Structures are given as C-alpha cells and as structure tokens.
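Pilot study result, target chain (409 residues):
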Amino acid sequence: MTTAPLQPQTLPRLRLKVTPAAQTHLRAGHPWLYESSVKSQNREGQAGELAVVLDRQDRFLAIGLYDPGSPLRLRALHVGAPVTVDRAWWAAHLDGALALREGLFDDQTEDQRTDGYRLINGESDRWPGLVLDRYASTLVLKLYTAAWFPHLQMVLELLAERFAGYAVVLRLSRNIQDAAKALGLHDGQVVMGELEGETVVFSESGLKFEADVVRGQKTGFFLDQRENRRSVEALSSGRRVLNAFSFTGGFSLYAARGGATSVVSLDLSQHALAGAKHNFALNPELVKVGHQTVQADVFEYLREDLEPFGLIVLDPPSLARRESERAAAISAYATLAEDALKLLSRGGILVSASCSAHVSEREFFAAVRGAVERSGRGSVELETSAHAPDHHATFAEAEYLKAIFIQVF
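Predicted structure:
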C-alpha cells in the first residue's frame, strides 16, 4: 500500500479567496466549499493538500482538505481562529469524535450488548468525506474523496494506537476507485490487521448480525436504523409483521424478539434474503417465531390480496439520489404508504422511513400523513425520528434519515 505524495513543504501554503456567500456559509458551520465559490488561489493544488481560506481582509477563516478533481473543492476541517494541523492536532481531532460516543454503548448487559456502531460520521464530526464504523473487533474505514489518500497512513497509525488488535477494512466510493488503484489501494482491502473471510459477526442490542464488510452496501450493514429497530421491537408483540425492503432482516429480527406472531421479510434480492435467513440462524432463540422470506418487488407485492398485517415496515433504499428525482420520490413514498395501509388490520401500525437526503423531513412526513388522510381511517401518530446519536448530523445536507410511526383504526 502506498499513499499519494504531496508537494514539498517548501511551497507556500495553498490559499483560497472565496465569495462572500461562501464565507458566510463556512462561518455558519457548512463544511463544503464548491469550485464555483473560489474567486482566486495563489497556486495550483494537489488532492489532500491543506488549504487555507482567507476572508475579505486576508485573515484566516478556515482550513480544509483540497481536492482539485471534485466540485467540492475544499472540505473544511476547522473554521475560526488559526490552528496548526499536525499529527497532535489529528490525534486530538480523532479523540474528540470518539469521546462523543462515550457512554452510548458502555456498561451493557450481554442481552443488550452493542458492538456495531459509527465512530466517525464524516463532515458532522469534522472528518469530511470519511466514515469509520465498528463491527466487533473490525473497523471499516470508508472514503468518499481522494483528498484522504495522502493522509491514510497517518489515520491508520492513529487507529492502531487506539484500537490495538483490530482489523481495518478500506471501503471506497466508486468515484475514487480509479485514483486508488494507482496507489495500490482497492475497495474491500484489509489495510491493518487480519480478517478471516469477508464477513464479521457483531452484536446490536443483544442480537447477532453478520456484516459483509468487504463487499456489502455502505460499510456492511445499515447501522443508522438501530434506534428505529428498537422501536419496532417494542411495538411488535402479538402482531403479524411485514418487513418490506428487508435487506438482511434487521427489522425482522427485532420484531421476532419483540413477540411478533410471524414475520415476513420481503426483498427483491435473493442474496439479501439469504442474509436474513442467516441472521435468524445466528439467533436460535428466535426460531420459535415463524419467519418467511419472500422475493418480490415491494410495489407489486403490496397490491396483492394478502392476509392483513399488524405492523408493516417500509424502509426503501434512497428513492431520490439527485434533486431531479425528488418529486417522483415523494410520490413513490405516498404510493407505498397508501398500498401498505390497505394491508393493515384495525389497530395496525405503519412504520415508514426515508434515507433520501433530497427529500426533506417535512416533505416525507407530509406524503405519509397525506396517504393516511386519504385512506379515511382514524389514526394516531406514535412518533417520528431522525438520526441516531452516533450518526448525528450538523448541517442540512447530512440530514437524510427520517421515520414516522402511525397506528390506524
């Protein structure tokens, strides 16, 4: 493994002058500086260089990671008074992110043990374009910008000091995989320690799950839905549960432990459903609950003539990956809710979630609430939720996750 070399230290610090609007956004905590916001710079820069942003009076405003190959020209690390970004700063920066998670999963009893959670949540922890997740004694480091390549070795050294004996798997977004290849890096590479196989078994709230840390979606599992899964567990007793867009059965296992009479995991992917079966097998105490997997398109399945369910979870993948898809996504969320409501028994509960950042919380909740109103059924809104504490969001574009729980009569 190699890392991208930076320009010699003899070169002057890369300095950027930006638009007044960009200055305002940086001061307000927004971590991104777009190419179009850069008015001038003193020289060309390389991916991963530390660049300083100057205000209108040529005073220090911010410092961040420069990336000439991305529309996000700079990702802010620090805004405010000048700082020296050296190894000691990086170490303190990492410890600050880890400290935010202290107490969230400590002092757990075995039946509630959780050793799968997020340690660094990118921009919201001022580690822009970098995510770090823990799965038992394996860490998954996901990079979204080539600006991290020159700093990778230093990051790994800091992790080794704090997580002795852990393995680290490198995951890369698609847009930087070609650049990584030139440095001897690739997606799914074990860059520290040893990993047996491609999967890791970890605990969440006392349940065992398998994460595909080498090839799986995101970093191997959808850790961000933990709190919503716990809510579903508390609502499942005595109910027939449908987990639509089930992936590997996260909500299904919680519903089963919560006392569901039966659980259906519904997904279009046979591979995902096989993962759901395997996760149930990892928890033999749940065998008493009837679990069925169904491979089908959710939109079509919800329109079939089926026995009513007492609880339905709708947790689709992002339906709006770009702004141009926002309107269609809002319509799709409403359609899913309308069709699910027809399959809910009296007193049944609809749990609808969205991970589409381009659809706002207001728009999503309005789509689901509108579907309930059009159904003509009485309803009680039980709760709404957003990000789990280990996935906290500090600016608008990071606020992607939202869920709503509604009981209908």
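One observation from the pilot: The chain is about 25% helix and 30% strand. A full batch analysis is planned for the follow-on phase.
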